[in-house]
Amino acid sequence: MEGRRCVMAALSDDMLTVLTVNLLLSVSFLSGRPTGCEEDKGFIFTAPREIEALSGACLQIPCSFTVKPQHKFNPRRKTFGVWLKPGAPILNSPKNVVYNSSQLKNKYDMNITGNLREKNCTTVFSKINSEQEDKYYFRIENGPFKISALCKPVNVNIRDSAWRPRIEISGDLKEMNSVIITCSALTPCPQSPPELTWNLEPDHRRLTEKNTDGTFTDKIQKNITLSDTHDGFNITCFVRYPVDGGKYKVAKAEVTLSVSYAPKNTSASISLSEDGWVNLTCSSTANPPVSFFTWFRNSTNGTMEVADGDIYGLNITKEGIYYCVATNDLGNQTSPEVHLAGQRKGNIQHEGPYKRRGTLLFH
């Protein structure tokens, strides 16, 4: 019936009447949230609606509240915070209380670390386990003023394995560019932060950042000036979360760098055939790959382009000085010169191994 619906999510003790008690008795808490509740605009509770914890580790729930003047919150009075789990028939029943800051012993190992008189109700679970996965409701008690945030439960989810860290790279992955590499990890409990390590040089910065929802993230960062040697390099970042018993839960993330660079290590090589031909082969490393190779010949008449492609076949009588140029979108590189000198018909002999710079003599 419409007349029997709960009209407020946050219920003040100084507003309770026999009628509201009867209304509460009719509310079902099987879902962890009162049916048909509407938030009391005079009491605003702020905390994450969903928060994830690691089993065996500590968990911090960022929490604050504001109270409008009509509720007569007095910071000079003793103020206590209460955390409750859903239950029937009345959520505010003592049976549903798991923590009350006015008590020395509580059902759960929790502690309100925030200053309640300053409306900070931040709370820490010292060690949380899978059995504590549930919805949690906050209640403030300030002398005669008592109120519960019934429409804004904090849904605590528990996981058994550590979160994977996240690797991010700012900037364009191109040679000579300076980039910032960051490995970050969720920090459910800043009082016992995770440990981050990676396979980069240890001269990095460590940061702890507060997120917009009040949670925290730990990071390590390093500046790197990229070169072709970084292309294909695998960055591995590890995170270790301390859990009960002096143990750790570990996870890792990996990222392989793809660095763009102009052609490098460009060289020309020679192969001989028995039919009087020589093959000149141009090779180079580049990312993106070489788009085209060009062959040039130096002679007394100057330099001229003689061929395109990575392989240039020529007659053995074409003595001279040759070199190739490898080109991609980022630039080009010229190979050392290859000298072809001397000729004789008949069998071809090649004395000694070919060197990148020198003369190939047929005799």
UniProtKB/TrEMBL annotation:
Domain Ig-like as annotated: residue spans: 165-256, 263-341
Keyword annotations from UniProtKB, A to Z: Signal
InterPro entries, A to Z: Ig-like_dom, Ig-like_dom_sf, Ig-like_fold, Ig_sub
Signal peptide coordinates: 1-32
Domain of life, source organism: Eukaryota
A Pfam family that the UniProt record links to this protein: Ig_2
Repressor listed as a keyword: no
Name the UniProt record assigns to this protein: Ig-like domain-containing protein
Organism for this UniProt entry: Poecilia formosa (Amazon molly)
Lineage: Eukaryota, Metazoa, Chordata, Craniata, Vertebrata
